[in-house]
Amino acid sequence: xxxxxxxxxxxxxxxxxxxxxxxxxxxxxxxxxxxxxxxxxxxxxxxxxxxxxxxxxxxxxxxxxxxxxxxxxxxxxxxxxxxxxxxxxxxxxxxxxxxxxxxxxxxxxxxxxxxxxxxxxxxxxxxxxxxxxxxxxxxxxxxxxxxxxxxxxxxxxxxxxxxxxxxxxxxxxxxxxxxxxxxxxxxxxxxxxxxxxxxxxxxxxxxxxxxxxxxxxxxxxxxxxxxxxxxxxxxxxxxxxxxxxxxxxxxxxxxxxxxxxxxxxxxxxxxxxxxxxxxxxxxxxxxxxxxxxxxxxxxxxxxxxxxxxxxxxxxxxxxxxxxxxxxxxxxxxxxxxxxxxxxxxxxxxxxxxxxxxxxxxxxxxxxxxxxxxxxxxxxxxxxxxxxxxxxxxxxxxxxxxxxxxxxxxxxxxxxxxxxxxxxxxxxxxxxxxxxxxxxxxxxxxxxxxxxxxxxxxxxxxxxxxxxxxxxxxxxxxxx
Length: 479
Fold this sequence. Notes:
CATH superfamily of the largest domain: Glycogen Phosphorylase B
CATH architecture of the largest domain: 3-Layer(aba) Sandwich
Number of helices: 21
CATH topology of the largest domain: Rossmann fold
């Protein structure tokens, strides 16, 4: 089976969040199921600098204003198709925002181009390869099935995966004229959304199947609280909607082989984690007082519950804990954590930005990871925590609820608990979860059992890849 995956970021070439990890890991996970997946992504400057020996295999004389090429590249085993369109992607800043943190004003054009290129590839643009199915990710690729509906690839099945329905790609109606779509596409059946143009809306209307990244999130987005305005549309497409929990790349995230940590270890050699704890403490300037180290690796936003976490920092410190934070986002939240680090030197540490090697060390050296998200489609950091014996403390929502077994009395008695859940997302509820964690930490055998049980969890792509393979096969069988 030949599958075209379309994503705006792919690890290890470029990453702003979990989407990149998924797009980078899924092709490897699908290979054992007889699926050859080629991934189309934009040719950002960092991508063009990293790829080696690209081969031009197709192109466009005019793709939204200038010529563009399709490059075939093998990068660390990833079979990539890179859209080389300098007029759209060769610029300073990140993949979505400029150096000041503002969205590029032509993002609609940039990601319409990615989607149109994908649709043309599905329709036979490349003389040597054509996919049997197209799998697109999030709003940046969601116009692909719309373009396919009006082009030669209308019969090729499509899967749209929602990684976070809060990001929808909604633009004013004036941009429709630039999208190279027929007039009838600006209707409720396609991209029209309350008078605007909705990229994700169009994909939800036209994709053959819709997936989210956890079963619980697939149910949550059918409600007004989590559906972000799409609950009615999704309910109408209920038979095409499913939730498939993400996995992680267990070769990249493996405490037995990880080159980013101070000392490798396994579930049977947890004492070796101490070297990572010391390295993490040195990085953040922590004192040597006993007590659990809690970590956060996250975007610092309201969605991630970082405002709630900021409220309980005093409690963490006063109870003998330490807090290491890695992330960026809302300036006010960044300032709150920076202020806490200044208020509690040796107890609270803050690293602004994103640092892949440091994120590995934090999972290997901290005792617990805090994830108080108000909604979380899947979440990957709790899976990394399980893999590394860094006990997750999570809100009861979405993929967090699906992947962490709460350390209640029954789960502890059955020796199946892997972390702590709490609800609702409030300072009082998080404080209660922290009290439970502190109590468990003071019982070394119990804490080691939580760590070991988490490390036994299957966080790989194996089961999820099987479900994707079944979904692909069912769509192709429908003809």
